[in-house]
Design a protein that fits this description.
Elements: H1 60-70
Length: 82
Amino acid sequence: MQIESNGIFKSPTHKVMVNPKYDRISLAMLSLPNGEKEIGPLSELIKESRPQLYKRLKDYGQVYYQYLASGERQINAVKINS
């Protein structure tokens, strides 16, 4: 959503507060776009006052898993440095 909204919606960093008095059950679910489909900011959200902040790319899953292993935020890999 952060890429498609051109940074209007922010992707939060996952954090968990653990309470030692209670057991915790976690279910990890990950939703990734089809690797054949190109994703990027919606053209309607790119304006002179709000330039494009993220690259257009295919196979975001590959980028996601590569940066997940490094401990860096994956969103930074597709950010346009301006």
